[in-house]
């Protein structure tokens, strides 16, 4: 094993959203920062979005699921006991390379679920405590949106104006107005006008395939250039095998593998931001005599309480050509009408809805016809295929229902006893079964979404999916005040190892009913 001579003040494992926030902030404050990333830099010219075959590339080489993508920088995940697939991306920027850039703050009630609804646990922090950190990272990432959303407390004012609402958003807003239901222009971590080193969004609508123009605020574009300019060192293709401890039980660095060679990077503080699957995997691999069940795992909760957002979708057909391909791909509009608990519905918590332009893609359109409820058995060949594609492209609106997924210790991430990555390290094994509350929540909201389609004038509407994987990996290193019932405290500091921190979605106490990146970044900044 070779040892790097420079001792880092802070070693960050993972160059995704949370790692980017930490690296930028700490480097700017003068700390000697080293970042280890098992993937590599992404060449924007390699991204598939501008190629005619972009959907085919997105179904293999650029698929969010590492089992399908199969790069040598990925690690396999055993999903034999999971009803949901999972997603992540390994590389500088992490999963922000392929995310849609929906930027959604959690709501105040999300932090008080036990108090309000008698389920799960309250977070050890409040919405109000996170507000200044939400605001800080929204400035860093050029978040665009309209101020004054009545679904949030006063003062939610994104730094950039909202993107123009495309035809699908305007049409559905008219329908929601008829019903008297809440809607608001979408929030997106994509600049609506030139911001720092990024240009104004050119609205290609291909954000989930990576932004080939470098406009979307992925961590490699919006965060790491600043970190590197202030002296941070980023080591790529460095797969971390173990976080090590000194004789006092403090973290003193990490062992990583690069091109088959083992290295040791010493550090005074270790921060882990490897996502809700990679982080527990690394902690479980880092077992020792002091921690025989995995590093920082005296509670037994490392890897437990895995949550995702098993979303549902519905589509409607409309007579008008709505230009549904126009981006950004994250949110045209969103609705919080059914977000808070109403006990009469037969479940607790709720869901954010948002309009996405995913239906505009030809292969995506085929899936919505051939896998939809009530349409899967209809003829879809020859003349029927031609007719339906002509009627659909540009004429379809899709709602995505993002449910709050409550934690269950029977859903977990552990080490696979057989499967390994390309360096021989244990793969992750995920067990996930959608809970009854989540199923009821999704079903209720999908029915309401069909009512919204009807109000907006759809000639036909149907449910296209239930309980889909969201690629949001959360909850496996729960934060809390009690070391017996949590892994880290409210700052992500491990109860068992005081100079070890976790800063990614592993921290989440509940899933919330919104996309998690905004809260992940705010927690990392705090």
Key words describing this protein structure:
526 residues, 17 strands, alpha/beta
Question: Your description of this structure?
Answer:
The protein has 526 residues and is of the alpha/beta class. Helices cover 23% and strands 19% of the residues. The chain has helices spanning 17-28, 54-58, 66-69, 113-117, 127-140, 167-179, 219-222, 224-229, 275-285, 362-370, 383-392, 436-456, 517-525, and strands spanning 2-3, 8-13, 33-36, 77-82, 184-185, 233-235, 239-245, 251-258, 261-272, 311-317, 333-335, 351-356, 396-403, 412-420, 426-432, 460-468, 500-502. The strands form 3 sheets. Strands 1, 2, 3, 6, 7, 8, 9 and 17 form an 8-stranded mixed β-sheet that branches. A 6-stranded antiparallel β-sheet has the order 5-11-12-13-10-16, sandwiched between helices. The protein has a 3-stranded mixed β-sheet with strand order 4-15-14, with helices on one face. A hairpin with a 5-residue loop joins strand 7 (239-245) and strand 8 (251-258). The two termini are 35 Å apart. The mean pLDDT is 95.
């Amino acid at each position: 094993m070779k040892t790097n001579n420079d001792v880092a003040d802070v070693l960050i494992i993972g160059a995704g959203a949370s790692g980017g926030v930490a690296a930028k902030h700490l480097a700017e404050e003068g700390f000697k920062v080293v970042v280890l990333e098992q993937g590599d830099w992404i060449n924007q010219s390699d991204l598939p979005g501008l190629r005619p075959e972009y959907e085919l590339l997105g179904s293999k080489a650029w698929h969010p699921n590492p089992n399908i993508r199969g790069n040598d920088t990925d690690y396999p995940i055993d999903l034999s006991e999971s009803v949901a697939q999972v997603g992540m991306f390994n590389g500088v920027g992490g999963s922000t390379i392929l995310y849609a850039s929906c930027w959604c703050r959690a709501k105040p009630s999300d932090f008080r679920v036990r108090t309000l609804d008698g389920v799960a646990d309250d977070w050890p922090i409040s919405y109000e405590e996170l507000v200044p950190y939400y605001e800080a990272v929204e400035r860093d990432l050029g978040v665009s949106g309209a101020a004054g959303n009545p679904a949030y407390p006063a003062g939610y004012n994104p730094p950039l104006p909202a993107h123009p609402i495309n035809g699908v958003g305007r049409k559905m807003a008219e329908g929601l107005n008829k019903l008297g239901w809440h809607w608001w222009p979408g929030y997106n971590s994509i600049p609506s006008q030139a911001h720092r080193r990024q240009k104004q969004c050119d609205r290609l609508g291909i954000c989930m395939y990576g932004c080939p123009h470098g406009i979307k605020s992925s961590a490699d574009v919006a965060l790491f250039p600043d970190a590197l300019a202030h002296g941070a060192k980023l080591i790529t293709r460095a797969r971390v095998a173990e976080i090590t401890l000194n004789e006092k039980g403090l973290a003193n660095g990490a062992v990583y593998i690069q091109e088959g060679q083992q290295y040791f990077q010493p550090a005074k503080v270790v921060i882990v931001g490897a996502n809700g699957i990679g982080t527990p995997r690394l902690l479980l691999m880092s077992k020792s005599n002091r921690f025989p069940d995995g590093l920082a795992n005296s509670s037994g909760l490392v890897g437990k309480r895995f949550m995702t957002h098993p979303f549902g979708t519905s589509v409607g057909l409309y007579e008008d050509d709505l230009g549904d391909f126009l981006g950004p791909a994250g949110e045209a509009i969103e609705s919080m009408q059914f977000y808070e608990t109403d006990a009469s519905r037969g479940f607790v918590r709720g869901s954010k809805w948002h309009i996405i332009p995913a239906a505009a893609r030809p292969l995506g359109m085929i899936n919505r016809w051939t896998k939809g409820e009530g349409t899967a058995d209809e003829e879809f060949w020859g003349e029927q295929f031609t007719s339906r594609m002509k009627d659909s492209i540009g004429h379809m609106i899709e709602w995505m229902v993002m449910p709050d997924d409550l934690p269950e210790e029977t859903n977990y991430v552990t080490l696979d006893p057989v499967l390994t990555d390309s360096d021989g390290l244990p793969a992750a094994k995920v067990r996930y079964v959608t809970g009854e509350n989540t199923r009821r929540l999704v079903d209720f909201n999908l029915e309401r979404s069909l009512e919204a389609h009807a109000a907006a004038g759809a000639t036909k509407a149907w449910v296209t999916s239930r309980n889909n994987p969201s690629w949001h990996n959360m909850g496996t290193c729960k934060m809390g005040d009690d070391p017996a019932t949590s892994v880290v405290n409210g700052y992500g500091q491990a109860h068992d190892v005081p100079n070890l921190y976790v800063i990614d979605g592993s921290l989440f106490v509940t899933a919330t009913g919104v996309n998690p990146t905004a809260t992940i970044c705010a927690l990392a900044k705090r």
